[in-house]
Amino acid sequence: MATKPTSDLETFSNPNPDKDYTIHIEIPEFTCLCPKTGQPDFATLLIDYVPDKACIELKSLKLYVWSYRNEGAFHEAVTNTILDDLVTASKPRFMRLTSRFNVRGGIYTSIVVEHRQESWNPQDIVKLP
């Protein structure tokens, strides 16, 4: 059983690399520290991605997210860093990370960042009645 956070992200082979499908992950307990005040910032992270050859292993993701608990970071910086780390580890066809930070001083902050492989073309959306 892991007893400490880690910045290592693990992956496993995509069981269906021939298909485009979306993996949706919600992390409602993300925390980091405000770099100005040292007070905790709380957020929900939403990850949506279309894997290519690898998928993100969830236990390692949990430990990775935990590693930010005592780190000072601006919302914009931490969101971009997390996306970059996830993309480096899994090399997805497409990935979107949305960080929805809880209210602080009467202000909610949401950050959305995306990555898309240059050669990837999404399938057309199917509209059902």
Describe the secondary-structure layout.
Blueprint: E1 11-13, E2 23-33, E3 40-50, E4 54-56, H1 58-66, H2 75-90, E5 94-104, E6 107-116
Descriptive account of the structure:
With 129 residues, the chain is of the alpha+beta class. The chain is built from 2 helices and 6 strands; from the N terminus they run E-E-E-E-H-H-E-E. A 4-stranded antiparallel beta sheet has the order 2-3-5-6, with helices on one face. The longest helix has 16 residues, at 75-90. The relative contact order is 0.22.
Q: Notable features of this structure?
A:
single chain; 129 residues; alpha+beta; 4-stranded antiparallel sheet; two-stranded antiparallel sheet; 2 helices; 6 strands; globular
Task: Classify the helix fraction into a percent range.
Answer: 10-25%
Mean pLDDT: 94
Reported for the largest beta sheet, the result is: 4 strands, antiparallel
What general form does the structure show?
globular
Q: How large is the share of residues in beta strands?
A: 35-45%
Q: Please tally the helical runs, counting DSSP H or I stretches of 4 or more residues.
A: 2
Order of helices and strands: EEEEHHEE
Number of strands: 6
The gyration radius over C-alpha positions equals 16 Å
Strand arrangement across the biggest beta sheet: 2-3-5-6
First-last Cα distance: 47 Å
Report low-confidence residues grouped into runs of 5 or more: none
Class derived from helix and strand content: alpha+beta
